[in-house]
Amino acid sequence: MADAVFLAISVLTIGSAIASLEVRSMIYGSISLMVTLAGVAGFFLLLDAPFVAMFQISVYVGSIAVLILFTVMLVRRELLFHKIEDPRRRYAGIGLMIVIMLGIGTIIIGSGLKSMEVDAPSVDFREIGKDFLTYYSPALVVMGLILASAVIGALTLARREDVTNEQRTD
Amino acid sequence: MSNELIEFVLVSVALLAIGIYGLAVKRNAIRMLFAIEMIVNAANLNVVAFSRFIPNSQGQTLALFSIAIAAAEVAVGLALIIVAYRMYKNIDIADFRRLKG
Q1: Does the residue A170 lie in any domain?
Q2: What is the pTM of this model?
Q3: Per-residue model confidence (pLDDT) at position A103
Q4: Rg of chain A, C-alpha, whole Å
């Protein structure tokens, strides 16, 4: 059975996921997205994967959430509180969400995953490092190139052509 | 280890459903990015859960790759939103209709 820590983390994660989509202010929305990502990191800790959990915290909570927060602050203030939604579309979306939850949920509950038992010790993070540097080393290099090109692409996209730097004379 | 695999998978399904709801309903570009992040996190949670219970270290490796790729995706996505906001002075998806060419 699920223990109390698992229940607390799952309530926190799913509640803040809903809140980040539904809260009126988008700044509070991005903060609750941060709570969701930290909750997923908590799940990783429960799954005996501390390395992935720390990576999740440093990448998602540390950089992505801050990036989103700054983008939200760059947008005009009244747009952040302005919610345009078709109510019929909203009800259809809620219906879709419930159908997906119940459909996939019943499939998973009926699939006999519960009988899976863990008896082996958890994976050591040394094995992850070995994987990274031996079998997956070409993928690691490609990932570095992708990250570099993403940073360069973001800088190129966000650059303004119409503003030129003027030399100050005084 | 007192938790079972199916509980993690069910939480992951809930996150996926919330993310799909956000993508379907919201018209705010940044909120749609939030929803995409939730879906990616649901996938990562699933992968790490299965790698714990099989047990195999490659699931965690895949999750690490996935987190890094998601970081790149968010950076480019936010830059695109900023450019579109500069062009249309709005972050409403319906205002970006002219982008369809």
Answers
A1: no
A2: 0.88
A3: 92
A4: 22
Closest CA to A39 of A65, A68, A6, A64: A6
**Would you say residue B99 has pLDDT above 80?**
no
Q: What is the mean pLDDT of residues B70-99?
A: 85
Query: According to the model, what pLDDT value does residue A80 have?
Result: 67
A111 and A75 together in one domain:
no
Residue to test with chain B: of A55, A64, A122, most B Cβ within 10 A: A64
Measure the CA–CA gap between B101 and B92, rounded to whole angstroms.
Answer: 18
Strand partners for B28: B92
**Exposed, middle or buried by CB within 10 Å (0-12, 13-18, 19+), for A56?**
buried
Amino acid identity for residue A146 in this structure: I
Cβ atoms of residues A10 and A35 within 8 Å: no
- Identify the CATH number of the domain in which residue B44 sits: 1.10.287.3510
Interface of B with A in 32-91 (CB under 8 A): 33-35, 37-38, 41, 44-45, 48-49, 51-53, 55-58, 60-61, 63-65, 67-76, 78-83, 85-86, 89-91
- Which 3-state string (H, E, C) describes chain B? CCCCHHHHHHHHHHHHHHHHHHHHHCCEHHHHHHHHHHHHHHHHHHHHHHHHHCCCCHHHHHHHHHHHHHHHHHHHHHHHHHHHHHHHCCCEHHHHHHHHC
Question: What integer is the mean pLDDT of B30-51?
Answer: 92
Complex ipTM value: 0.90
> For each successive 10 residues of chain A (170 residues), what is the average pLDDT?
84 94 88 93 90 92 88 79 76 91 89 69 81 90 93 86 68
Same domain, A58 and A129: no
